[in-house]
Every structure is written in C-alpha cells, then in structure tokens.
C-alpha cells in the first residue's frame, strides 16, 4: 500500500477544517503541526458535501483522537474502521461541545492509503 498525503486547514480563530474528500481513501494517521494550539481532534462527515454530522460511535461517544503538537498520530484499526466509507470529512480542534479555536491557521497533514472495498 502506498501512503498518500493530503491536508486539512483550520483557519485562524476557527476550530473546524476545510472539507477533505476521502472517497476511496482510508485515513491511517495525522501529522499535527508543532504550533498546534492544544486540543484533541473530532470529526464531522457528509455524504454530499452539504449536510455535515458529527461522528459518534454506536455507543454514543464522540469519535476523538488524542493528539500531540509536532507528532505523527497513528490511528488504531478500530478508529480507521469507524471513519471508513465516509465521503467528505472536516476535522475539528476540540469536541462538538467544546471546540478549540486555533491561534493561527493550522494545516493537519492527513496520511491515507487506498481503501480496499
């Protein structure tokens, strides 16, 4: 499997990233910039790039990735599975209930591989 890199940018004083089209891609890791304003990551997904919904597991818990500034965060298999099949994705700094605005524009590097359907 060949890894591909893409980006999701969160604007200054915002908590939600630009839209990323992850059709046929499996998100396997995220590189967090060293200048990251401390916050975990959560996700919002859409089938049509119009209506987005926050991503929760079947137990009602928001899907959350714990991240560290300046680090590569490898996503566990169960986490990857929860995000598989999504078409459009936005990444949030913080949670739905407590978003964390970034102090400057930040670009998260998304590491993906081609999804095997």
What would your notes on this structure say?
The chain starts with a strand and ends with a strand. The strands form two sheets. Strands 2, 4, 5, 6 and 8 form a five-stranded antiparallel sheet that branches. A four-stranded antiparallel sheet has the order 1-9-3-7. The chain is built from one helix and nine strands. The chain is mostly beta strands.
Oligomer status: single chain
Q: What sequence of helices (H) and strands (E) makes up the elements?
A: EEEEEEEHEE
Number of helices: 1
Helix content: under 10%
Report the count of strand segments: 9
What's the mean pLDDT score? 91
Distance between the termini: 14 Å
How would the global form be characterised? globular
Beta-strand content bin: 35-45%
Poorly predicted segments = none
Radius of gyration: 13 Å
The largest β sheet comes out as: 5 strands, antiparallel
Strand pairing plus helix content: what structural class? mainly beta
Can you tag this structure with a few keywords?
globular; 9 strands; mainly beta; about 120 residues
Task: Write a brief caption for the model.
With 117 residues, the protein is mainly beta. It is built from 1 helix and 9 strands.
Topology:
Elements: E1 4-10, E2 20-21, E3 25-31, E4 41-46, E5 53-54, E6 64-65, E7 72-74, H1 77-83, E8 88-93, E9 106-114
Antiparallel strand pairs: 1-9, 2-8, 3-7, 3-9, 4-5, 4-6, 4-8
